[in-house]
Amino acid sequence: MPLPLRPIAFVLAASNHGSMIVNRNDHHVDDKSRPYGVGFQILDKSGFDESEVSLVLALLDCRRNHFGNGVVAVDGGANIGVHTIEWARHMYGWGHVLGFEAQEVLYYALAGNVALNNCMNARVKLAALGEQCGELVVPQPDYFKPASFGSLELRPNPDNEFIGQHIAYDASACNVVPMVSLDSLGLERLDLLKLDVEGMELEVLGGGRSVLAKHRPIMLIEVLKSDRAAIERFLGGFGYRVFPAGHLNIVAVHALDPTLSQITVKNGEPIVAAE
């Protein structure tokens, strides 16, 4: 019997990040007629946010130089794994990545990309990071229709971003996934933490107080949908200096981290100087 006709969402792309499973529908157009989405960037330009990726790789090098091999990086909100793959490949032989993705379908692509690129120093989990351990009800977009899937907010609020399609938050239309706190992971070391969790950044930081106090990781945090001032106050209480990283992100470096002396800001972007 012939196979039923059905649409194709995920495709394999030869990107600058290696072979990547990408959703060709991962795009939306903002109110200024600018298309965006991880999949869109990869399919349109072969890569995603080159300057951001390069910045984090430089920061990982700093941590290795100052604290030795065994670097550990956590990718919170890993999507299909651009950062996870780039970090793991870069740190082959001297570092490890732990990635978290709460959208089940994106997690399948993330795990596939880890395997395709032979990143055996990366572990990825279908879970949300949060302030406490438990479960989170996660909405499910239609991955066969256009939307910026990485922009999906996991909780409903009156100001939810329109990502290209209507999102239902009632339980019958959602998946339930584990939610874990950073403190619950039992990390013996943490050098870098990236948070891109669509408005839940402060909650995740709140669930990592012990980790932040003990390991003082460098952080790249998206503040587009969060209270930036509240995040900066929180980090200041742990002895962090905060730098702008474009209009979307901040970089936080602890005052006792020798990496701090290597960072300057030029045109609103952090620059990491070689030692």
From TrEMBL:
<dbReference type="Pfam" id="PF05050">
    <property type="entry name" value="Methyltransf_21"/>
</dbReference>
<dbReference type="InterPro" id="IPR052514">
    <property type="entry name" value="SAM-dependent_MTase"/>
</dbReference>
<dbReference type="InterPro" id="IPR006342">
    <property type="entry name" value="FkbM_mtfrase"/>
</dbReference>
<dbReference type="InterPro" id="IPR029063">
    <property type="entry name" value="SAM-dependent_MTases_sf"/>
</dbReference>
<protein>
    <recommendedName>
        <fullName>Methyltransferase FkbM domain-containing protein</fullName>
    </recommendedName>
</protein>
<feature type="domain" description="Methyltransferase FkbM">
    <location>
        <begin position="75"/>
        <end position="242"/>
    </location>
</feature>
